[in-house]
Structure formats: C-alpha cells, structure tokens
Amino acid sequence: MDDKTTLLRHTLATLAYRGGKALRGAPVEFAAFRVGEQPRTPGQILAHIGDLLDWSLSMADGKQAWHDSPPLAWEQGTARFFAALEAFDRRLASDVPSACPAEKLFQGPIADALSHVGQIAMLRRLAGCPFHGENYFLADIVAGRVGARQAEPVAEL
After folding, report:
1. What is the pTM of this model?
2. Residue-number span of the structural domain to which 84 is assigned
C-alpha cells in the first residue's frame, strides 16, 4: 500500500472517530432539527455523508455512481455511516488498485464528509445537545478502525 492510500485510510479513521463523537448520544428528535427553512437537517446531512462515502467506493471501483438517499432514522443513518466507512476502508486496504487517485478521493468526497461532520457538531450545540470537545491531536486514531467502536477519548475538554 502506498503512502497516499495509507494517509487516506487514516483520514477515514479520523472521520470515523470524529463522526462517531458527533453522532453518538444525539436525541432522536435531533435528526429533524432546523435552524431555518433552507439548511439541511442533521438527518439530511447524515444521509448526504453516507452518499459521499458510497460515491467514494464507486469511484475507487471505477464506476462513479451517485445516489441521493432520503434521511433514515438517526440510529439507522449512523449505522449506514459506519458501514459505508468500513466498506470503503476495506476496498482501500485490498490489493486491488483504486481506479481513482487518492488525492481526488480526499479533495472531493472525503473532505466534504469531514466538513459535514463539523456541521453536525455545530448543530448539536445549537440544538442544545452538545458533546465534549477534545484535543484530537492526542486521540487514539488508527487506520483501519472505522467502525462504531472507537477508542476512548484521551483529552476531552
């Protein structure tokens, strides 16, 4: 595995860690929280993140398939998030070369997914259901650990 793919897999593990923190413990009604009429709800954002991860996998396979999925119940959307991360990470860890450069996968869908996790974190605060911040530099994030089970926080704020 080349250095770019290794870094991309670490980025997916970072997305799993940070995303997991933003998704865990949210009340069921949070999925429909609105700040105004136009912005997406957290449930819609979570569905979009799942679509981005599915799209990433399709690009790695050379198929470039996009789908606009409807929001799921929060727990189901969270399960989809982790399942999509696991599928994409498995693909990157395989011996089959990606049909898409790692840089393109990072700059497009993965960077977008990271931004959307930040939106969910901000919306949690606005909705009155924040989670603890953390010094993520110290977090125990390891390439390949992309499921719902993540390391305990090392330095929460």
Report:
1. 0.95
2. 3-138
